[in-house]
Amino acid sequence: MYKKGFNQNEVAEALEVRQASVSRWLSWEDKGGNEALKSKPHPGPTPKLREDQKEELMVLLLKSPTEFGFESGLWTSPMVAQLIRDHFAVKYHEGHVRKLLRELGFSPQKPVKRASQRDEAAIEKWCKETWPSLKKTPKGAVRQ
User: Fold this and answer.
1) Nearest CA to 76 among 46, 108, 112?
2) Which helix (H) or strand (E) holds 14?
3) Which residues of 5-27 are buried (b: 16+ CB within 10 A; e: fewer)?
4) Nearest residue to 6 via CA among 61, 15, 24, 54
5) Would you say 102 and 54 are in contact if contact means Cβ atoms under 8 Å apart?
6) Burial of 139 (0-12, 13-18, 19+ CB in 10 A)
7) Each residue of 108-138: b (16+ CB within 10 Å) or e?
8) With contact defined as beta carbons under 8 Å apart, do 36 and 28 qualify?
């Protein structure tokens, strides 16, 4: 628009930005051409764990939490944060631990809520033999 004869205020009004922004863009374009106007994603903060530490963490997480003194046999975000703090002396917020775990290829899992002494054969037999005899029969129907 500026190259077509509009002034900076007109460009700013049309784009609904401040005139200072248009001025800054024109300055960048003068110094670096169109390449200077392309957006550049912010690199973000420096990761707290190095790549080699992340690989070591993956190996540690394949072990049982009980090996590290935790009572539960299932990893939780607070437990992983504690492991990172103890093993690498790096503090992670437990909410960010979930992002780190996802980055490492882990996904949230829920334990199956079944008794370890569950007898599948006995359950199937009960469902086929006992349960039908306990079910109500419609009025007038004959129970076999």
Assistant:
1) 108
2) helix 8-15
3) eeebeebbeeeeeeeeebeebee
4) 15
5) no
6) exposed
7) eeeeeeeeeeeeeeeeeeeeeeeeeeeeeee
8) yes
Mean pLDDT (whole number) for 80-101: 92
Between the alpha carbon of residue 9 and those of residues 2, 30, 88, 95, 113, the distances in Å are 10, 18, 54, 45, 66
pLDDT reported for residue 140: 66
Output the pTM of the full model. 0.50
Tens-place pLDDT, residues 30-69:
888 888 888 888 777 777 899 999 999 999 999 999 999 9
Query: Which ranges of 16-105 does DSSP label H, i.e. alpha helix?
Result: 19-32, 51-61, 77-88, 94-103
Average pLDDT of the residues in 15-36: 90
